[in-house]
Amino acid sequence: MPALNPPPDHEKLSAPEKDTPTFSPDNVSVIYVLGGPGAGKGTQCANLVRDYGFKHLSAGDLLRAEQDRPDSQFGNMIKEYIRDGKIVPMEVTVQLLENAMTEDIKSGKEGPASRFLIDGFPRKMDQALRFESAVCPSKFTLFFDCPEDVMQERLINRGKTSGRSDDNAESITKRFRTFVETSMPVVDYFEKEGKVVKVKAVKGPEEIYEEVKRRMGERGFEMRK
Fold it and tell me: Which of 206, 207, 148 is nearest to 179 (CA)?
């Protein structure tokens, strides 16, 4: 992955301004996948990758990989933000996503019409607006709607085996609060534009996926054989 340019100072990260997005929505389909921590986004993304030919990009996974990269300029900063349940500056996240998309498209794996699921993004309005204007306008946001108590139970159980530093009670509480305060306004914004597909995520994974497939079909996405 291309290295990110270091920030000019400790307070502000710069990213080049663009007049047009890097990718055209005529050639690249981007679906944002949002839901609270533990809503089951990863499980459903795996299903869509298998059946619809999407490339799954997890903003969180890209950030965790960047923080562990030995020569990363932002590793320590990312580690602190994740530990505290805060959102990493959007310039970093958007650039990591663009790098990953560029690498995948150049590899030719996705063919002429590339499909990307971006999991756990955008988490704030500035991320959404920057990505839409600089990288690629999205088709819609797939939002998994799940009550907090259900998500918390899932995460506590996952934490027993995941090894993730943020699957603990204190970090989970912070992540819930962050999601409600910063990510729900993103969902509301796109919903007003008619660009949200909301799926109730309380039942089992198989039942939820049946609903996902139905809603994908309504938006013109068919399973690839």
Answer: 148
